[in-house]
Each structure stands twice: as C-alpha cells, then as structure tokens.
Design brief:
elongated; alpha/beta; single chain; 7-stranded parallel beta sheet
C-alpha cells in the first residue's frame, strides 16, 4: 500500500459526491511513511443540511476493495482508511469559496473572469514554476483561485515565490529529468492534497548551437529535460489522475505541456531544442489517445518568444546572448540588434506574454471536446495549415 494509491481514491470519492474540487490532506499519524507538506489555511466544507460532520472509517484487505467501500461509507469531513492493517487518516477541505464575478459595463472583462473560473478551487502543479513562463502561469492560476504546487529544481526561487503569493501555494523541489525525484513529488502531492486536477509541464531549457559544433552533452541534456521529463511527469502524476477517476468517473482532468513554436517549425542552429519540442508534440498526441479512457485530456500550448523573460533576456545565458555568439542573426553585432530582428518576425510586433499563455490554458481546460492538440500562441508568427 502506498499513499499514491489510496489518497487519490479518497479524493475521487469526494469529487464524485460533492461535485466540486476538494483537498484531502493526510493526518500526521497516517501510517504512510510520509507526512503532508505544511500548507496555508484552507476552508472547511459545509456539513450536510441539518447535520454535523463526523469521522468516516473504512477497513479493507486490499486497495482494489477500497472504491466500493468508500462509496458505501457515510460522507464525513475526516476519516480513517485501513488497508491490510496499515492506516491512512485524512481531513477534507477546500481551497476557498469562489469570489463573485465582477459586474460592469465591460463584457470582455466579465468573460475573461468567467473563463478564469474554470480553475477556481482546483489543485494544480506547474513544473519550472519558479521563474519565466512558469512563474507567470503560477501567478495566473493562484489569482484565479487555484492551489498551486510550484515544482522546480530552483528550491530557493520556488520557496520565495510561494512566500510571496501566500497560502494557496506550496514549493516542491524536483528534478524533472530524474524519475525518483518525480515519483517523490507525486507522493508528496498525494499526502498533501490527495491528488490533482491540472498538470502544467513547463520546465525546459535551451542550448542553442550549430549541429556541426554543438557538444553531445548539451544535446542530451536538452532532450532529457524537454522530452524525457514530460514522459516522467505524465507517468507519475498521470497515475494520480487515473486513480481519482476510479472513484470519480465523471471528473475530467488536464495535462498541458508548455511546448514552443519550435515544436511546429524548425529552428536554425537550435536543433536540439526544436527536436525535443517536435518530439513533445508526438508524446502529447500519443498520451492523449491512451489517457482519454482515464478522463485525462492532454494538450500542448506552443508559445512564441517570451522576450522579456530570463530565457531570452538573461545577460549571461539568455537566447539573445546565445544567438549573438552563435551568429544566428547575420550582421548582428549587439544583443539589441538580435532582439529587433526577432520582434520584426512577429505580425503583432511583440513577444508572447504570460497572460497570453494563461488564456490558452483556460481555453484548453474549458474545452471538453479537445485533446491531443498543439495550440500556437505566437502573435501570428506560426500559422497552422492542413
């Protein structure tokens, strides 16, 4: 018995009966070998009309018997599950009650707020969430009422962002290219919130260089983090989502890969990156076909260039610096000239913002009939054709 097996089943039962997202947190005395991460204040769920909450107790001999036993048990705001002599105590709460939608004369603003509501109260994880696009996504999800795990190898950066954004976040240290690290993250999530509703696989790196000169080590590192890591994230977090589905058969969840426009068109002197992103879309389509039976939608967002973020603008390792050094922009002698060259390629004449990506995330979540897609968010720089 592992907490990754039990906690999602318990959370799924509450999702099925209540029809709203909940947080299922392991109690300190759970016989799991793993305590829940300390997170901020959560809201209590209201008891049944005219009744009071109590403690549910379920005892089974195997995990396979647990779904039926949970369905037959009374709904309580805390409980104890015993499987083959091992115990799992839990309490149930919510991220918080939805704020009322703004009312005003701007229908576009009201529509945007309504779209953001699709993540209200849900539990999400964002890999590479401590900086760049990832941090923008974390901020957007928290502002929309979600509880967000900020998963990053940059432990200090993740902790700093979590402290800034408040109780509806938790920092998790993870190396997305290391399976043991990803598996440990899944166990921690299971103990802390019981499961997930949204996985945003965002972590990635760029190592630009000519195929004639690039070191094989840089090529392999790019592939490990941008391609293999998505497989590992989907494998271990997908198991949590699939387990929830056993007890909440009508609850749909989402895995979204933050890909790139370089996953749709080739990238000169950046083959390692483009290859890893093209491969990522192949995984998205394949995983979508497989996981549809588990109620998991798998899609990709392919942003254009985030010129203002560290990926491009870092003065030491940013892409503007790398592209200047590699001679990718003919005739360019300064970083500013490289930037001007790339901005001129975008019909809407700017780089991609985090808010552009957030709107695409909301779109994919609310689309119940959309899976296996790669959605370009490029300002018109990449246009799909049949």
């Amino acid at each position: 018995m592992s907490i990754e097996q039990i906690a999602p089943l318990v959370r799924g039962e509450y999702l099925r009966r209540l029809g709203v997202p909940v947080v299922v947190t392991a109690l300190p005395d759970a016989d799991s070998g793993l305590e829940a991460q300390q997170i901020g204040e959560l809201a209590s769920i209201a008891p049944p009309e005219g009744g009071d909450w109590g403690t549910s107790w379920v005892e089974v001999e195997s995990v396979d018997e647990l779904p039926a036993a949970l369905a037959a048990a009374p709904l309580q705001n805390q409980g104890l599950v015993e499987v083959d002599g091992r115990s799992y105590g839990y309490k149930v709460s919510t991220v918080g009650a939805p704020e009322p939608l703004p009312h005003g004369k701007d229908p576009a603003a009201s529509a945007a707020a309504a779209r953001a509501r699709v993540v209200q109260g849900k539990v999400a994880v964002v890999t590479g969430g401590a900086q760049g696009f990832g941090a923008e996504i974390v901020r957007g999800l928290v502002a929309s009422g979600a509880f967000v795990y900020i998963a990053d190898l940059n432990a200090d950066g993740a902790a700093k962002l979590a402290a800034e954004l408040g109780p509806n976040t938790a920092a998790v240290t993870v190396n997305v290219a290391d399976e043991a690290s990803v598996e440990a993250m899944a166990a921690q999530i299971a103990a802390t919130t019981g499961g997930l509703d949204l996985v945003v696989s965002n972590a990635g790196i760029v190592r630009a260089g000519s195929v004639l000169e690039q070191e094989a080590a840089d090529f392999r590192l790019t592939t490990e983090i941008n391609y293999t890591a998505f497989f590992l994230i989907t494998k271990h977090l997908g198991r949590l989502l699939a387990a929830q589905r056993r007890t909440a058969p009508d609850w749909t969840t989402d895995i979204i890969q933050i890909n790139s426009k370089s996953g749709l068109v080739g990238s000169n002197k950046n083959g390692a990156y483009a290859g890893s992103k093209f491969g990522g879309i192949g995984l998205v389509q394949s995983f979508a076909l497989e996981l549809v039976e588990q109620g998991i939608k798998v899609n990709a967002i392919c942003p254009g260039n985030f010129y203002d973020g560290p990926l491009w603008s870092d003065p030491d390792r940013g892409l503007f610096v790398q592209y200047l050094a590699s001679g990718k922009v003919p005739g360019a002698t300064t970083v500013d000239e490289v930037r001007e060259f790339y901005e001129a390629k975008v019909p809407l004449r700017r780089g991609t913002y985090g808010s552009d990506v957030m709107r695409a995330i909301y779109y994919l979540i609310e689309q119940e009939y959309e899976t296996g897609q790669a959605v370009p968010v490029t300002g018109g720089q990449v246009m799909l054709s049949s």
